[in-house]
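User: Can you predict the 3D structure of histidine kinase? Sequence below.
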Amino acid sequence: MWKDTLLQTLIALLPVFAFMIWYDRPERSRYASVFMGICCGITMLLTVQYAAINDFGQSFDYRVVMLLVGSLYGGVPAAMLLTVLYVATRIPQYHDLWQYILLALFLLVLLPLLFTRVATFQQRGYSDRIKQVTWLIITVLAFYFVGHTIILIENHINDLRSEITFVLLYGIGFLFVTYASVHLAETTYERVRMQSQLRVVSQKYLNEMRKLQQLIDNTPLVVAFFDGQGRLTHVNEEALKHAHPLKRKDVIGQSMPSLFWRDDMPFEVSPIDRVMRGEEKVTEIARFKGRTFFTVTCTVLEAPSVQLEGILFVGQDITELQRLKDEVDRMERLSLVGQMAASITHEIRNPMAVIRGFIQLLNERSAVDQQSYFRIVLDELDRANAIINDFLSLAQNRIVQKESGNLHDLLNDVIPLIWADANMRGQVFEAKLCDNMDMLELNSKEIKQLILNLARNGMEAMNDKGVLRIETLNFEDTIQLRVIDSGVGISKEKQERLFEPFYTTKANGTGLGLPLCLSIVERHNGKIHVESVLGQGTTIIVSFCKPGRNCW
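Assistant: Sure. Here are the predicted structure tokens for histidine kinase:
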């Protein structure tokens, strides 16, 4: 009998052991109640088959444990089926009326308690579940001891000690099996619940990482992460654009100096090295491949140890901002030029006209050998007057009268003058005009002045063997005028200042010619651009937007 009782205990624990093996993934959660109900039903039949029978023919088994556990973890459908199965296995074993009455009372008391807890059992915490199971166990044990007491009274048993001992041991076994089943089931549910929560947290973490990655990759900033040894670990797409033709695999693991160090960068020491030496934040203005960057380099600390985990490098391309600042500075200089021109032009030109008149009179009355001196004075006066005229042209913010015209017609008017000037200098002049030229809104006087200024600048930049070429190109939205010389070229540093007033690369220049050209081009809704290589020459490109087109 004791062996049968031990076998009952092992059989009663089979459902939770099978449940622990089967329920190992969150995907099986929807089938967990069905599986537990089926296992408890099968085990209930096994407990009946291998029940322990005492000397009075009374059956001892743990089928009621299957009823409790299967109902609580299987839900209402499982509770109903297991109740029917429990009654169906009990009735054939009863012979006395009082047994049927006791079964009916047991079901009337237990089932309301059981079904009221089944609906909310899965939503409660572990401690509340144990309390509910405890009340059910007390109810079952109370009926069990009442029924067994009635059997002892009816059979007039003399050896009460052994019988009571068996009943107590059976009760202890019942408590053990019930609580062990609940605890193992709870452990299994908790393990899978933790797996599910871990998956949710991991997915949220991956989503946040993906969002952060998209933010870093799509932000218009250069973002790079370096490890504690100064080696690149991550770089975004914007940084890779400036590192072209290098690919991501080429830059990962490299140090900053080997990737971005150039002679025009002002760093005496790499900002990465400075941060590694102890500085928390380093800000610099750097130039790289012709672009200007405002850079911030700071530490990335590891929590909670607050140790250096890596270094963050962020760079903002402020080339356009710098260009706008330079444009504002240029406009301020032009405004200064305008104020100067407006205040002194008339005061200077009137005395100069009087001086020129008397110089001409003295030239007519002077000796022949002295007339050359007067011609020098007259030439310098004319040069000063030309400078004043440039001042006026540059400073005047007037609305020019433009008419529909053909750029080729204006070129044909000034080409003879350019050819004659080039011929006097011993230089070669070439004109390459496109076949078809669309009409533009032009001020003929200003455009002719623009062409002559650009051509003379090109001739002055060449020696007597130089070649000057003027080309025109007709694009879909724009028309280009190109003035190309074979002179000495202009360095990058000088190109950036060519259109500043008073800045000149010529020994006797005033620095007003190209600013004047720029103001003419801007008044005609155009743009001017310089391309030059030292030792190979310079190309001035003037682009005019066609009427009705949105070019810029």
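Confidence is low (pLDDT under 50) at residues 262-267. The chain is about 60% helix and 15% strand.
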